[in-house]
């Protein structure tokens, strides 16, 4: 289902039908393998269309790794996987220089980070130097080996997983690296009905998913997403929610102010809008709504809110704080003319 010139989304009326068709085929193919993780798959697609990275957190077993591998197969391009361990060194990720005795020269062997989609499995098991090497690739889309700098392939995404219930041999991600992830998605166990289907599929015949896109197709889809209309009032709404996380006292949120040490950064506001554009595209619209921003708020903010010791002791979670923010600033009704009337 490669996207060719005749599949370009028309301006503007026909875009929703075509974009919905592309996304429906992608989602259908992934769901042939993955059961009961619809919200997770949608968030992964949103991040990929918006050019962002995703951190998945969940207990072992809910198919975090399998979902990423299946999505990589459907999207095409080069897939890389690194199983992070405490003894990992930056060269294991980025590559290293190798001395050739016969030629009396060095050659550079590129590492697994040079992929379109990199699965960083159990990322919190890697020491600080490895996380720093990954941070450069995530932010700058380049890797430095010795005195040389190499660009990573485009598009480039990091989908990382971490296990929240283990602490032995782990290194908590620094706030600077957490802020580079567009989303932090919490993955829970499937429902009873979904788990029954999972077991049936495992016991049945194996499923082979098809490759529907290529890297060039993904870049085209990202261009379409960049054309999604953003009303200035939606931007103001996103910034208001994020700004309230930084200055809760000034927004009538005195009850949660003692629990917040640091709120969301301006990158949170940017990611809210970028993610809302991709979400609107997936749902067949050429404009974003305040509801899109509110729906992504937890995934964008939960890893950017740093709580005080008092807040942690009181059992307050980042998700609870985001709920307070959205209660204080629910998605406003908005008249977008012929595009939408709320």
Could you give the topology of this structure?
Layout: H1 15-31, H2 38-50, E1 54-57, H3 64-75, E2 79-83, H4 90-94, E3 95-100, E4 105-110, E5 117-121, H5 128-140, E6 142-145, E7 148-151, E8 157-162, H6 175-178, E9 183-186, H7 192-203, H8 215-226, H9 232-246, E10 260-262, H10 266-282, H11 290-301, E11 306-307, H12 309-313, H13 318-328
Parallel strand pairs: 1-8, 1-9, 2-5, 5-8
Antiparallel strand pairs: 3-4, 6-7, 10-11
Helix pairs in contact: 2-10, 8-10, 9-10, 9-11, 10-11, 11-13
Keywords:
alpha/beta, 13 helices, five-stranded parallel beta sheet, 342 residues, Helicase, Ruva Protein, domain 3, disordered N terminus, 43% helix, 2 domains
Describe this structure in words.
The protein is α/β, with parallel strands linked by helices and 342 residues long. The chain folds into 2 domains: 5-217, Rossmann fold (3-Layer(aba) Sandwich), CATH 3.40.50.300; 229-328, Helicase, Ruva Protein, domain 3, CATH 1.10.8.80. Helix content is 43%, strand content 14%. The chain contains 13 helices and 11 strands. The strands form 4 sheets. The protein has a 5-stranded parallel beta sheet with strand order 2-5-8-1-9. A two-stranded antiparallel ribbon has the order 3-4. A hairpin with a 2-residue loop joins strand 6 (142-145) and strand 7 (148-151). Helix 9 (232-246) packs across helix 10 and helix 10 crosses helix 11. The longest helix has 17 residues, at 15-31. The chain is globular.
């Amino acid at each position: 289902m490669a996207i060719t010139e005749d599949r370009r989304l028309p301006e503007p009326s026909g875009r929703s039908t075509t974009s919905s068709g592309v996304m429906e085929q992608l989602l259908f193919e992934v769901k042939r393998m993955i059961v009961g993780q619809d919200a997770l798959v949608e968030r992964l697609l949103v991040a990929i269309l918006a050019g962002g990275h995703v951190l998945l957190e969940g207990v072992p077993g809910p198919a975090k790794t399998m979902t990423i591998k299946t999505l990589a197969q459907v999207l095409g391009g080069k897939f890389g996987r690194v199983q992070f361990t405490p003894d990992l060194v930056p060269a294991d990720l980025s590559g290293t220089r190798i001395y050739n005795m016969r030629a009396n020269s060095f050659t550079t062997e590129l590492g697994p980070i040079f992929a379109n989609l990199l699965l960083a499995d159990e990322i919190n098991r890697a020491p600080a130097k490895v996380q720093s090497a990954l941070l450069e690739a995530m932010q700058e889309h380049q890797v430095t080996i010795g005195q040389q700098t190499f660009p990573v392939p485009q598009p480039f995404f990091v989908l990382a997983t971490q296990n929240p219930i283990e602490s032995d041999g782990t290194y908590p991600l620094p706030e600077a690296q957490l802020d580079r992830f567009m989303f932090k998605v919490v993955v829970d166990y499937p429902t009873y009905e979904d788990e029954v289907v999972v077991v049936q599929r495992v016991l049945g015949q194996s499923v082979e998913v098809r490759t529907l896109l290529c890297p060039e197709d993904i870049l085209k889809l990202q261009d379409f997403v960049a054309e999604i209309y953003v009303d200035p009032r939606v931007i103001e709404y996103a910034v208001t929610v994020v700004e309230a996380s930084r200055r809760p006292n000034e927004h009538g949120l005195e009850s949660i102010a003692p629990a917040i040490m640091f709120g969301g950064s301006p990158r949170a506001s940017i990611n809210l809008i970028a993610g809302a554009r991709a979400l609107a595209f997936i749902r067949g619209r050429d404009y974003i709504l305040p509801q899109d921003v509110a729906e992504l708020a937890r995934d964008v903010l939960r890893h950017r809110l740093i709580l005080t010791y008092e807040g942690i002791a009181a059992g307050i979670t980042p998700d609870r704080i985001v709920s307070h923010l959205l209660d204080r600033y629910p998605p406003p009704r908005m008249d977008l003319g012929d595009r939408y009337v709320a």
